[in-house]
Known about the structure:
Elements: H1 4-25, H2 30-38, H3 41-54, H4 58-75, H5 89-92, H6 96-114, H7 119-129, E1 133-137, H8 143-146, E2 156-161, H9 164-173, E3 180-183, E4 197-203, H10 213-216, H11 218-222, E5 227-238, H12 247-258, H13 269-277, E6 280-288, E7 291-299
Parallel strand pairs: 1-2, 1-4, 2-3, 4-5
Antiparallel strand pairs: 5-7, 6-7
The structure holds S-adenosylmethionine.
Amino acid sequence: MKSAQSLSLQSFFTAKFAAMYRYLTAACSSEKIIFFKNSNLEDLLNWHAHCIVQGTSLDCEFLSGIRVLTIYLKETSMMSTITSRTTDDGVRIYSRLLLRCYDILIYHLLAPYVWRCKSRYFADLYHLMMSRNHADIGVGTGYFLDRCHYQSGEVRIALFDLQQNCLNFTAARIARFEPETYLCNALEPIQTSAARFDSIALGGILHCIPGDMLQKGAVFDAIRPLMHADTQVFGYTILNQDITKTMLSRCVYAVLHRLKVINGDQDSAGQLKSALEKRFQNVEVSTIGCIALFSASTPFK
Ligand SMILES: C[S@@+](CC[C@H](N)C(=O)[O-])C[C@H]1O[C@@H](n2cnc3c(N)ncnc32)[C@H](O)[C@@H]1O
């Protein structure tokens, strides 16, 4: 039986997305609105894939993405409990279904309009920091790896993730680089016989991990077996403290946090900096909107 807590979460979530859905449908023809309202998950998935292949207008692609996500979240256990948080909470959402909508939702919608950090800032960080011998921890869809400035044959890329779907999706997307893949929990020391890396990205993984920055800092310890003295570590994470928020960012954060997609409502740039400074001699953290972008090098012995 569902708890009163989960029922109130469900109504909160449904109300927020219903408003967004109404707003978006205003931009579409009545024929499409009827289609979206009456179709089931399978129809929507096929339509979404069709939109991407045909290059149909962004409105339609975006709308079908939102609708698919709404149905998906309602149909999964994500709506059922909002009590304790586990490592699995940070990876459960990355189903094959969501990965098909991920880039649009994150990089064309949430990053620029909600977190107020355009995707070019993340891309610039990759451009600056990614080496020819690179490890990516928490790969998602491999959006920035796919856009990196290297040609095939020029770069070694290794993918590390706790979610097999993310590894498969990214490995297929960047197959031209023949990536290595490793299924692992980035909170535990990553033991591998693989040669060490010159750069390591931790893009968007910290806000998935439950606990405070002290606990999330375990990731910086876990990657030590992959590092040598000159390895450059970089990444970004969503913050919730000591930043300027908008009504929209508060609202979306609250929904994603209650759904356990984002974990760590106490995260601040200051805490991130001290977690890094405990482990590295050179640390830089800058904030754009609700996002902290960071880099670190020269680990303490
Ligand atoms: C928000 S996505 C970030 C994707 C990508 N790096 C980007 O910048 O768009 C977070 C990724 O971290 C992975 N992840 C979350 N917790 C993890 C953990 N404890 N160990 C390994 N991977 C984890 C998820 O499966 C997902 O692929």
